[in-house]
Write a structure and sequence with these properties.
Helix content: 40-55%
Shape: globular
Largest sheet: 6 strands, antiparallel
Radius of gyration: 20 Å
Structural class: alpha+beta
Number of helices: 7
Strand order of the largest sheet: 3-2-1-6-5-4
Number of strands: 6
Strand content: 15-25%
Length: 275
C-alpha cells in the first residue's frame, strides 16, 4: 500500500510542474498574441489552489483510514506536512512570477518610465529570487547571467547578478572552456549538480569567498541562438527541490522571452554593457 500513500505527493509534484510550464507558455502566447496576461495568471493561480486542495484532501483521506497501523498513520502525517510545505513554496513562487510577468508586460507597453532592462532583471527578478530560494540561515545563494565578453569572446563576463559584489561582478572574467557553465552554453540545455565536489569539470573560481555545492545552469536564448547562461549556485548540497527547480526554470524562461523580443539588448553578442 506504500505506493498509494505516496501517490498524492507524487501526483501534486507532477501536476504543479506541468502547471508552471503552462504558465510560461501562457506568458509567451500573451507577448505574441496580446492575450490578457492578467486573466491567464489569475486562472493559473486558481488552478494551482484547486490542485493543492484536491491533493491535500486525498492525503487527509488516506491519513484517516482506520485500516492502517499507527506507524503508517505517522508516515502519512509526515507526508502531509511535506506536501503542505511544497504547496506553500509553489504558491510563493507563483505569486512572484505573476508579479514579474505583470511588470514585464508594463515595460513592454512603455508604461514604466526610466526602468532599464538591467534594473528590471537585477532588482525585479534576481534579488527577490535570491531571498525566496534561501531556506537555511547559513546558506549563501547567488544568481548570475553570463555572456561571452565582446572584447574577449572566449571568456564569460557577468552581465546581471544577485549576491555578488559590484566589484566581483564588474571584474568577473573566466575562460568559457574552463567554466562549468560552458555545458549549458554549448549544448543548449539545462544542467544541474547536487554536489560540485563530485564534478571533475568544476573549478572553483580563484576569487570565490566560499565553496559552493549545488548549481543549476540554463541557456539563455535570443530566438534559436544561445547568447548567455543563467546560473544559480548554493553553498549547500542538494539545495534545490522540485519546486525550486521549476521556479528557476521559469525565471530563465522570462529572460528568454525578453531576449527573443529584442528587449534584452545587453544579452546580444557584441553589445556594450548597460550604462
Amino acid at each position: 500500500m506504500r505506493w498509494l500513500k505516496n501517490l498524492p505527493a507524487k501526483l501534486l509534484e507532477a501536476v504543479l510542474g506541468g502547471l508552471l510550464l503552462l504558465a510560461v507558455l501562457a506568458a509567451s502566447d500573451h507577448y505574441q498574441d496580446h492575450v490578457s496576461l492578467r486573466a491567464r495568471t489569475w486562472a493559473f493561480g486558481a488552478g494551482l489552489l484547486g490542485v493543492i486542495a484536491v491533493a491535500a484532501g486525498v492525503t487527509l483521506w488516506i491519513a484517516r483510514r482506520g485500516s492502517w497501523a499507527g506507524e503508517a498513520a505517522e508516515e502519512s502525517t509526515e507526508e502531509l506536512k511535506t506536501l503542505r510545505l511544497l504547496s506553500e513554496r509553489y504558491e510563493g513562487y507563483t505569486e512572484h512570477l505573476r508579479q514579474i510577468l505583470e511588470v514585464l508586460q508594463q515595460v513592454i507597453a512603455g508604461e514604466v518610465a526610466g526602468v532599464t532592462y538591467a534594473a528590471f532583471i537585477e532588482r525585479g527578478i534576481l534579488e527577490p529570487a535570491r531571498d525566496m530560494l534561501k531556506q537555511d540561515p547559513g546558506e549563501d545563494i547567488r544568481l548570475s547571467v553570463l555572456e561571452p565578453d565582446s572584447s574577449a569572446p572566449d571568456h564569460f563576463r557577468m552581465l546581471f547578478a544577485a549576491g555578488h559584489t559590484v566589484l566581483g561582478k564588474t571584474n568577473y572574467r573566466i575562460k568559457i572552456a574552463d567554466s562549468i557553465s560552458r555545458f549549458a552554453f554549448e549544448r543548449s540545455k539545462v544542467f544541474m549538480w547536487t554536489d560540485l565536489r563530485e564534478e571533475p569539470s568544476y573549478q572553483t573560481h580563484p576569487k570565490a569567498s566560499r565553496p559552493y555545492r549545488s548549481m543549476i545552469s540554463l541557456p539563455i536564448r535570443s530566438g534559436a541562438q544561445v547568447v548567455g547562461v543563467f546560473n544559480v549556485i548554493s553553498t549547500l548540497e542538494s539545495a534545490f527541490g522540485i519546486a525550486d527547480i521549476d521556479y528557476i526554470k521559469m525565471l530563465g524562461s522570462v529572460i528568454n522571452v525578453a531576449a527573443s523580443l529584442g528587449l534584452a539588448e545587453d544579452l546580444m553578442p557584441g553589445s556594450p554593457p548597460d550604462a
